[in-house]
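Supplementary Methods, section 5.1.

A reviewer requested that the exact input to the structure prediction be made available. We therefore reproduce it here, unchanged from the version used in the analyses.
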Amino acid sequence: MKNKISRRQFLQVAGASAAALLLASCSGNSASSVSSSSVASSEAASRAAASSEATSTVTTTGKTLVVYFSATGTTEGVAQTIANTVGADLFEVVPSDPYTSDDLNWTNNDSRVSREHNDEGLRAVALESTDVDGWDDYDTVFIGYPIWWGIAAWPMSSFVAVNDFTGKTVIPFCTSTSSGIGQSGKLLAELAGTGSWLDGQRFSRSSSEADIASWVNGLNL
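The structure derived from this sequence is encoded token-by-token as follows.
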């Protein structure tokens, strides 16, 4: 004789089966959700790592050099402050025949600088050295000089004329009692014929280290 299932028993069995199916479905969705979340987190972490690596590569910079000619020590002081601010190396342009205080007396028409000013042929000042060790390794070069009669002191012209500034960012700066930087930087750039020359800055004897450092930091090198 066949066993018969009551209506009540049938409903109980059907309900249990539906509940089991529903539970299995929920469990599957939960697993899928966790899996997707894990993949997304992994991908985000990979992107962050790649971004971090790219950033560290972009911020890498080359070496910086400060080249200067100083007649009385004023330009040397500015050059030293710039070097300290950016961690640069220094190279002093030194005439083979150094200027004396009498040579620098521009109010005397017979002084050395006056004669050189009046005769451009005398401005090709010989230097002790124009060769900078590791010159090709420098990406940024500051060029410093006093202003003589509205232009860069000619010993600096002697240095610029014989060096190749290709691929370098060049930043002129000058010192003077009253004159501005004028066209001095642009004239040096024309003489060099190479390099990317930026606008320069003039400093007076009274310029503080804070003033100089503020200008350098504003260049965002």
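The first helix runs from residue 7 to 58. These observations are discussed further in the main text.
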